[in-house]
């Protein structure tokens, strides 16, 4: 990628600098939520991580097949990879710029620790975030395409101590990623993670509730049905299998055990089954919007919040809650819900 106007326009307000090993050692000790947040800010202050990658056809093909989609553009990807120049759908960039490092560098729960809060706040959950596609909106077409060489710039935005509804301490961490393709800004991706105190596998629960035997173990299903309300928009019904979750974990190089290790998820983390990835549901919502409302365009932005977990084998749905004009933009309010409980809420503006 050239170092001309495109890269200069991406120059951050802070200077890039290496994260010192001494600061990493300082951040590794135990701390309260307030201390952990301050140590994160000290460790990553002014730091920008820069990576470059060619967006290969294999990754986006395998993601689309995992999502049950056999075409990208005008290509039948069930038999061949998409051609160079094929637009990459909104949200599909999540299978690129995946974590690196050795397995020994991962957290006890299998998560990447690049932007983790210091111990004991090591249990990470994807809480929500916001994505925007500034140049795609201006030009009316996708700015990420198969074969592009893209630069990713990642920085810590904030680290804030919080209290859970039960009074427990946790740390809210916000990270921003900017992706720049040959045609300019492609995606600005701000992610929010919640870090709770770590769990000790030695004290795993013997009596954790389990969904085993209560939910089907068949292949993933995704289908649209007619809405039973006055909106007229279809409802998308989904049920993710353990195999589908494993494939998504592999594509995103995500070692978080709650998505593929049922014993860990139940006995250590206290979940009744394998957890459907927050980013996977984000992509599902974007795909639904693209199919029902998108008319071949990309959104201007999406804000989303994970509110309740969904587990492998559970049936849930994605639907349009309402559509309106807000601040000069057409906004679609879309939810993923399970048995009347909203599990993820999103607002997509065009």
Automatic annotation (TrEMBL):
SUPFAM superfamilies: Thioesterase/thiol ester dehydrase-isomerase (SSF54637). It holds the Pfam family FAS1_DH_region. Residues 108-188 form the FAS1-like dehydratase domain. GO terms for molecular function: (3R)-hydroxyacyl-[acyl-carrier-protein] dehydratase activity. GO terms for cellular component: mitochondrion. PANTHER family: HYDROXYACYL-THIOESTER DEHYDRATASE TYPE 2, MITOCHONDRIAL, N-TERMINAL OF MAOC-LIKE DEHYDRATASE DOMAIN-CONTAINING PROTEIN. This is FAS1-like dehydratase domain-containing protein. It comes from Purpureocillium takamizusanense. The lineage of its organism: Eukaryota, Fungi, Dikarya, Ascomycota, Pezizomycotina.
């Amino acid at each position: 990628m050239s170092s001309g106007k495109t890269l200069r326009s991406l120059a951050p307000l802070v200077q890039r600098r290496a994260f010192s090993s001494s600061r990493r050692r300082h951040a590794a000790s135990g701390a309260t939520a307030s201390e952990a947040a301050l140590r994160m800010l000290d460790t990553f202050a002014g730091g920008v991580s820069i990576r470059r990658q060619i967006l290969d056809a294999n990754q986006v093909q395998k993601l689309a097949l995992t999502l049950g989609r056999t075409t990208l553009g005008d290509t039948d990807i069930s038999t061949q990879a998409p051609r160079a120049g094929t637009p990459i759908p909104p949200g599909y960039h999540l299978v690129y710029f995946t974590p690196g490092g050795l397995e020994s560098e991962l957290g006890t729960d299998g998560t990447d620790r690049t932007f983790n809060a210091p111990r004991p706040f090591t249990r990470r959950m994807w809480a929500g975030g916001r994505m925007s596609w500034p140049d795609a909106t201006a030009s009316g077409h996708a700015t990420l395409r198969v074969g592009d060489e893209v630069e990713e710039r990642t920085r810590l935005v904030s680290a804030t101590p919080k209290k859970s509804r039960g009074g427990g301490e946790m740390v809210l961490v916000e990270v921003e990623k900017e992706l720049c393709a040959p045609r300019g800004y492609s995606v600005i991706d701000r992610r929010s993670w919640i870090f709770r105190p770590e769990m000790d596998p030695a004290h795993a629960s013997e009596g954790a509730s389990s969904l085993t035997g209560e939910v089907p173990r068949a292949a993933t299903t995704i289908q649209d049905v007619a809405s039973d309300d006055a909106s007229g928009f279809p409802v998308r019904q989904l049920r993710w299998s353990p195999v589908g979750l494993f494939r998504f974990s592999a594509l995103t190089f995500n070692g978080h055990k709650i998505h593929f290790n049922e014993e860990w998820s139940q006995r250590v983390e206290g979940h009744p089954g394998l957890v459907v990835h927050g980013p996977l549901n984000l992509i599902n919502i974007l795909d639904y919007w693209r199919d029902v409302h998108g008319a071949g365009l990309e959104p201007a932005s999406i804000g989303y919040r994970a509110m309740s977990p969904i587990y492998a084998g559970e049936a849930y749905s994605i639907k349009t809650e309402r559509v309106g004009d807000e601040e000069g933009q057409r906004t679609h309010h879309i939810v993923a819900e399970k048995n009347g409980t909203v599990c993820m809420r999103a607002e997509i503006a065009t």
